[in-house]
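Please go through this protein, sequence plus structure tokens, and consider how the sequence yields the tokens. Keep your notes short.
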Amino acid sequence: MFRQSLTRVLTPSLISTSASSSSSTSYAATRTMMMMMGLTTRTRMMVRSMAMTSEQIRLVKATAPVFQEHGKTITTHFYKRMLNNHPELKNVFNLAHQETGAQPTALANAVFAYAANIDNLGALGKPVSLIAHKHASLQISPSQYPIVGKNLLASVKEVLGDAVDQPTMDAWAVAYQQLADILIGAEASLYKQAAEAQGGWAGWRPFVVARKEVESDEIISFYLEPADHGKLPTYKPGQFISVKQFVPELGYEQPRQYSLSSAPNEKYLRVSVKREMAEKERPAGKMSNLLHADVKLGMQIDVSPPFGDFYLDLDATTPVVLISGGVGLTPMISMLDTLTQQGAKRKVTFVHAARNKRVHAMRKYLKDVVAKNSSFVSTSIWYVSFTYLSIYTLKPLTVIQ
């Protein structure tokens, strides 16, 4: 089956004419993506020195359909292979996502998108930026990229067998190194910005749980203060941090990303965590349950600097509509909190959906915000379940479009 799929997509008559674009055209698209991501001239020169040939581009693009069809099989094999060979990386990867298949699926989709756009990498600027920010929050290092590359390419060969020839494998090796260099450069820039920011830091920094506040039946807010009593950086509302804690059940440390749920301040970082319970085929969230049940006041947690390319533009003056569902309100609360604390008079509409009042987090905060800023802040809260739909509005909306 694999051999037939690969033979079919490598047939010259079925290969897109765009795959035969020159390496200089490919580099132009790559350069556009790197400039969008703010990469240094040195990084751009390094990537250009490894620019793919037109034949390599053709081979990678031609095999994209194979990854669309068999990508999850390859990436599932890859994660098992790599984590068996390098168990130290179990402290980096979300092991729960290995159980559910979420991480292999995400990687398979990313590999397919990269292959399909290998001749137009400018189209991947936003996704690559997202990956770089997530990697930075996990403290991914350049030394880990060769490990990933070696095991990913070996997995392609072990799964597809003789259906993939050496020139195709060589093309994929160059394509992987090209993407690795782009990500390494982007992450180096993010690390530098985080370390040089006032109150910033490099790597993991110990924080103390100074306060736990129940926000709903499912969500608790954690107020984290620096264990060294040092300063905190000013982050952009909508960004996130990673927190890392040892999980006894797994025997490894596990990092998780949580959106910051308050305006930047000089005293604490706040994250609001939903306790993920087991549901049908989805296992209970190991880290969220650990945080809710076992992390006590005064305990230390390792925290990354804030990262993320989803945030509110505070320089704009246009109206703001914040739309969320469930625990997805946390970055929106940070945005709303920042706008009201800074005295911005932009019209703000906060639209939120929850299953019911018991699981609706931060209800009192929202009521208080509207009461204090009724001239420019309004909210529309929807409660939705399988059996009914109800709505209450803390302040009537004039227009919803």
User: Anything to note?
Assistant: The two ends are 49 Å apart (CA to CA). Confidence is low (pLDDT under 50) at residues 1-30, 43-49, 393-401.
